[in-house]
Amino acid sequence: MRPPLPHLHAITDERIARRPDLDDLARDLAAAGGADLALHARGRALSGLEHYDLAFRLSVFPSPLFINDRLDIALALNAEGVQLGHAGLPPRAARQLNPRWWIGRSVHDVPGAEAARAEGADYLVVGPVYATATHPDRAPLGLERLRDIARLGLPVIAIGGVTAARAGEVKVAGAYGVAAIRALWDAAEPGAAARQMLEELR
User: DSSP string spanning 136-177?
Assistant: First the structure.
């Protein structure tokens, strides 16, 4: 039986992957969140070797390891979950590689969420809920559309401009959990930021 889906997801990008203090940041996050925090190895511009190195470095910590898009790396490191882009491999195809994975799909609207549910996704990463520097050209969904997607019944992980101060309101809107890049990795005290987010979600 697989462990529960974490409520908090700390997602990297290329900049974070190349930070010299990455290991220290990940250690702080894992110590604060434990099994309820997933460390996501993500970086679309990373080479395959860089992505593997990032994932390997995150795999030594006690928090669950999730891999974004690179299923070969997820297999090599026995990751607990994979996160698929909205135009990536269908979840049912990924499940043939490892039926124990938590398999998520990134979606931006209700039709995309409905399609992901039909394709067999276990959970949805939905965003951007708020305006975010990660996707400055993408209009935020807002809480009402987040609520519409949550009504479909799959666990929803809200992403995009989600801070500790906003974690409670996305939970009220139906989110199971939240995902963040800057609000966790760039926090003055990443462990404290993770603890605060989890407190808002519980």
Answer: TTS---HHHHHHHHHTTSS-EEE-SS--HHHHHHHHHTT-SE
